[in-house]
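Regression test case RT-17, inverse folding.

Input:
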């Protein structure tokens, strides 16, 4: 059963970067950097129609947040546990739910239990918390070998079949829920987590907070493998992410249409799932960098806000900022200020577009709960619908650099009246709809 987060619009923040404390030379220990989420930033979120925020790793770590040192303590670079508790309270007062990163597959080398192993070797009470071979060595010359995440030995894999490890992690979740009041957890590299562990975690969470939302990171493979009634509530939709930019760059709407039909059509393999959709995040290039022409962004975001699933905006992309991963991820995780964009007309236009799409999604319920139906596909034009209980929303996209006439029929009775969103025009359906749509633009009809 889907919980209340199914209707949300997400804002994703890589917190250490946003607060300007990722680079060690910028750190100010014991200063509340979370206060950067001030009244102006909260208003910015509310104005965009944001109803949930996903905060990238916030717990004590060595560097980037995914190398955890302490699951029970907010990273000192960001502030204190009390600072975070106050932030959650403020966000809740503004009707914004809070989701945090749960990095349960691995820890950093400075994690307290691993440090005990480094000191005491096979005499450590915590050697069974990790997958360790004392008959081998490693590149750090620790005198033993251990499993690192995908060859990254600064990230030490936890032994998730160990009951003490599970108790430590589950008690941390209980602290996050009871002390901080979080509403959900995004499970880092969920594709690496044993299915039995996910089931135990889900059962535990159901007992402490039945509506705690659990979303897993999965890049390849079958999303059904980690999403289900006894598994997670959602997963990152990387298949759609890829199609959103490449179908525009290649001027080939057949690509994204195929993926949408495969996932959400009448026989779609994920039509009963509520997946987490995005156009960029902390691990991939910014969408404004990926597109060959920024005029594509209007249609890309129209798709994001009108296809099945939960839309998410990565902080800064509402202003169409660029970011190329290149050698490191630093360019994807910048410190930002609202003042950086207030006089930038192009950035403000992108923000206005996203605000309008968010408003539209909230005003047309079928865009949240409607079934997906493909209507018409050409290389540069795409028409699809969301429909539920005789309510329809028709999304029409034109990728061409000139206006285009589009004609299509719907499986409905004559006489149904459609409005064009943000327009006074009324269309009385009589067997077909014929419209002219501007270059690089979209139209939404609804009844």
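Golden output:
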């Amino acid at each position: 059963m889907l919980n209340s987060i199914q209707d949300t619009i997400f804002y994703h923040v890589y917190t250490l970067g946003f607060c300007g404390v990722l680079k060690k030379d910028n750190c100010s220990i014991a200063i509340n950097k979370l206060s950067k989420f001030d009244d102006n930033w909260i208003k910015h979120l509310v104005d965009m129609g944001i109803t949930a925020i996903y905060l990238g790793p916030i717990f004590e770590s060595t560097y980037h947040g995914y190398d955890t040192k302490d699951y029970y303590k907010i990273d000192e670079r960001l502030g204190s546990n009390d600072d975070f508790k106050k932030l959650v309270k403020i966000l809740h007062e503004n009707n914004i739910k809070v989701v945090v990163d749960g990095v349960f597959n691995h820890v950093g080398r400075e994690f307290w239990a691993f440090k005990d192993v480094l000191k005491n070797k096979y005499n450590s009470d915590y050697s069974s918390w990790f997958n360790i071979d004392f008959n081998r060595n490693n590149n750090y010359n620790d005198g033993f070998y251990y499993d690192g995440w995908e060859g990254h030995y600064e990230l030490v894999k936890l032994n998730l079949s160990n009951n003490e490890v599970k108790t430590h992690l589950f008690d941390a979740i209980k602290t996050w829920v009871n002390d901080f009041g979080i509403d959900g957890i995004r499970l880092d590299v969920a594709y690496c987590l044993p299915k039995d562990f996910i089931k135990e975690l889900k059962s535990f969470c159901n007992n402490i907070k039945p509506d705690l939302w659990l979303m897993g990171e999965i890049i390849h493979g079958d999303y059904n493998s980690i999403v289900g009634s006894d598994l997670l509530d959602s997963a990152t939709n990387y298949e759609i992410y890829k199609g959103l930019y490449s179908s525009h760059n290649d001027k080939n709407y057949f690509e994204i249409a195929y993926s949408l039909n495969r996932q959400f059509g009448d026989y779609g393999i994920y039509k009963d799932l509520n997946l987490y959709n995005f156009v960029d995040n902390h691990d991939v290039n910014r969408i404004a960098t990926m597109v060959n022409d920024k005029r594509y962004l209007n249609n890309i975001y129209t798709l994001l806000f009108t296809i099945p699933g939960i839309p998410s905006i990565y902080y800064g992309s509402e202003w169409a900022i660029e970011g190329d991963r290149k050698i490191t991820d630093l360019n994807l995780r910048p410190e930002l200020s609202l003042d950086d964009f207030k006089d930038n007309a192009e950035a403000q236009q992108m923000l206005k577009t996203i605000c309008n799409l968010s408003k539209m999604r909230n005003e047309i319920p079928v865009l949240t709960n409607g079934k997906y139906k493909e209507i018409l596909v050409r290389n540069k034009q795409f028409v699809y619908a969301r429909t539920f209980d005789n309510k329809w929303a028709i999304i029409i996209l034109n990728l061409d650099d000139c206006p285009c006439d589009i004609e299509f029929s719907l499986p409905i009775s004559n006489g149904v009246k459609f409005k064009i969103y943000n327009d006074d025009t009324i269309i009385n359906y009589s067997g077909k709809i014929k419209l002219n749509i501007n270059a690089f633009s979209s139209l939404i009809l609804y009844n």
